[in-house]
Specification:
Strand content: 25-35%
Distance between the termini: 31 Å
Radius of gyration: 15 Å
CATH architecture: 3-Layer(aba) Sandwich
Shape: globular
């Protein structure tokens, strides 16, 4: 049984590892060619953290996942509206796939959304990442085809949304 997972804000010593984890996760899953210019964005967790909130999931002192919370109106927000919380760059180390890391990161995003009064949170996923589509649907996200978009030729992003539960 895996040891407990800790989700925490990223710190300065984490940023290079976070960037490499993102590139490795996306490339291993077959959703990114390592020569793609987008790898520069994925690797630059430091820039993301300057304008958004980068979180890491850590187990036994090793970073095994990351996500970036992008409040509406910030540079990294793409499809969030009306105070929705958007998250991006969710990546799990391939060695930690299917161990609950992704769910823990989404739960941390939801907690942030709740604390900040967001009515819902949203994410975009590349169209060919069917595993992620299923993952988000299992977590209760629904498709928002009216917010699908393409940042460049050949890259089609599908939008998903889930209301933030308040109890």
């Amino acid at each position: 049984m895996p040891s407990p997972l800790v989700v925490r804000p990223a710190a300065e010593p984490d940023f290079d590892l976070i960037g490499e984890l993102c590139v490795d996760s996306y490339a291993t899953a077959g959703h990114l060619d390592p020569s793609d210019p987008y790898t520069v964005t994925l690797r630059d967790a430091r820039a993301r953290d300057a304008q958004a909130k980068v979180l890491v999931a850590e187990r036994d002192g090793a970073i095994v996942g990351t996500v970036t919370i992008c409040p509406s109106g910030t540079t990294f927000a793409e499809v969030g509206r009306d105070g929705e919380s958007e998250f991006r760059f969710l990546a799990v180390a391939p060695t930690a796939w299917r161990t609950g890391v992704g769910e823990a990161l989404v739960a941390a995003c939801e907690q942030w959304a709740r604390e900040n009064g967001a009515p819902a949170h949203v994410i975009c996923v590349i169209d060919r990442n069917h595993g992620a589509h299923k993952f988000y649907e299992q977590l209760g996200f629904t498709r928002l085809p009216e917010r699908d978009w393409s940042p460049r030729e050949g890259v089609n992003l599908l939008a998903f949304r889930r209301a933030v539960p308040y109890a």
